[in-house]
Amino acid sequence: MKTLAYALGIGVALATAVSGAADAKTLRWASQGDALTLDPHAQNEGPTSTMNSQIYDALILRDKDLKKIPGLAVSWAPVEPTVWEFKLREGVTFHGGQPFNADDVVFSFERALSETSDFKNYINSVSEIRKVDDYTVQIVTDGPNPILPDQITSIRIMDQEWSQEHGVEKPQDYAGEQETYAVRNTNGTGPFILEKRDPGIETVLKVNDGWWGWDVTDAKTNVTEVVYKPIANPATRVAALLSREVDFVLDPPLQDLKRIESTPNLKVQQINQIRTIFFGLDLGRDELRNSDVTGKNPFQDPKVREAMYRAIDIETIQRKTMRGLSFPAGIITSPGVNGYTEALDERMAFDPDQAKALLAEAGYPDGFGVQLDCPNDRYNNDEAICQATVGMLAKIGIKVNLNATPKSIHFKSLQNKESDFYMLGWGVPTLDSHYVFSYLAASEGSWNFTGFSDARLDELTKAMEVETDAAKRDAMIAEAWDILKASNAYLPLHHQVIAWGMSDGLELPIVPNDSPSFRMAQMR
Amino acid sequence: MSIDSDSGAKGLLGRALDSDLWFSFTRSPVVMVAAVVTLLYFLAAIFAPLVAPQNPFDPASLSLGDSFTAPAWTEYGMPEYLLGTDDQGRDILSTLIYGARISLLVGFAAVILSAVIGISLGVTAGYVGGGFESVVMRVADVQLTVPGILVALMIDGVARTAMPRELHDQIAIYVVIFAIGVSDWPQYARVTRGATMVEKSREYVQAAKVIGIHPLLIMLRHILPNVMGPVLVLATIGLALAIIAEATLSFLGVGVPPTTPSLGTLIRVGNNFLFSGEWWITFFPCLALIGLVLSVNLLGDWLRDALNPRLR
Q: ipTM score here?
């Protein structure tokens, strides 16, 4: 009897505790790899931007259909062909209480343009940022830039005072392994406030009740806390979802989607992602770093590149490794991006016999040895794709030594230009091909590790920044694609399909950039 | 005279067949099965290239199109892949045979390493005594308080940060052997030290001392053979433990590199496909590991009982 009384007492206590916390809703989520840094201008990488976009706002935001909506700017328009004017939102404060004004915008853009920034290529057409008054800024570009509003959706605004106080006026030098105050501490204007940052272990965000956007944007969350945990092992990640340890898994392994879907109270959302996966070949050097060919670089021979392209059986990778959740690609950008056409996306046929013949013509009848660098926690089944490629290239005689590392190591080694042959995936936040050329194909592109350099393509890339006639600009884009595609400096693999696994009680719109906006999350 | 010629004619085999050890072996069917299973593992591992239907480490022989094939007797099976294939189209049976090879190699080498370290320190400590003994045994005590797998993890971790990645991958297997070997030596040191202290006071050792034989020779020729019994038992059980330790390290992803998978690596890889119903990728490596460790352990247990006069 006494025990029963105790049990009842505990029950009542528990019930009160639960009802007391009824309006506190915690969303727990997981993915394979953590944000690399919280400095909003240091690394232009998907998961890093996803985390930072919860905390920091840009002048222009994107809604769930990726359409531009007013962010920290309420309106924008060109006042002259080369000058865009932005009217800023008044009454916004940073998480630390500092008021937001034009000085912060000027400061943030200059920061994003500085040497250690990884966001330079978004806004490399910008020559000057002017403060007109406290709530008006003008951005001056080298020539007319029709897509500037698209480009600046990724430039996040920091507080000038806070940055000066903590000595973070310049972005962290990520490749140089610099550690600054802004790497683990934040002060944005965004819908969530950083509560706890334990890199690689746990990141806790609290809702910002005073966010300016709750009334004026599409956002209306009832979540009060967002807890993120990276779980590298795919099976553990699924187990965490199945056991409800997390409510949302950004990247459930493709082989487990059926299992998640068939579990009561769990669901899978799918959408074609704007991200293409490909291999890069370093054809700039005279000799590869890790190869048994000395004195020359086999990748410089177009026949070798074509042979490698033709040796990859992308359809089997699609069917087996990706379980159908990918689309073989002919260029390194996806449908939905301006400049993409189905004709461009046609692949050269898979033909191992011809590949062998091409290798022999190039002077490598017995193939050669080379190292392939791959991430193992970034793209869907990235390591498995690379392993499959090792087998396919072995069939034409190319002996590949696979070096699969976590993305934090992989990207660092790419940026320090240490790779001959690497896997990379590229999404297009601006939804325009220019972004691809300026980062991946232009000679000075900061993510162009192929050494590919083409004067005409550089010229076109510059020209399309300032061309306002849409038809002429599209012609430039088409010509640039033809040059890049013909070079085979990149071996395209496929466009990714995203699948999110989540509990039935969670409403979170899936977006083609694979970047969840928790400001739109609704939990039951 | 007649006795001499008699024992000579019987030879080593005869003496072995006549021994208590053989007697107790033939009396225990469980041990005989364990011995046969262990022997099969050894043969398969040694002759892997001849036995295995496919060389799973040759990427050119793999066919991605055949990946995720179920075992041959199931509905979607293919006769050429008896136990099915993994995510890259590798034949599971062949991977098991090659994987057991790595596991056994690491196990044996680690046991030999820890036995050599442990025995030499243990016998010397027991024979010399004094300050040397205190230091060695205290170090052993301290190491015994830390679980062996942690010591191995630490050694592997240090090796990983200390050397460039390519180099580490090439010598990963030696690092694992070293890590497991070093973490296990205190067991051997303790046992041999105790036995040495008993032997040291026996008359034959005293006699050897009196006629002026060098201490090193006394340890090697007179004491060592008499302490080998318990060491043999320890080594057999140690082999099973070392195989488990290697599997654990590889399962955690810090053991041998995935390009030359051991049983632990295979279990880790297969683990990712458990939820999706491709059970054979992890099930058969688990079964193989259990079979190997169980039979080695049974042999070790039997050896311990058979060599212990008090249990007879």
A: 0.73
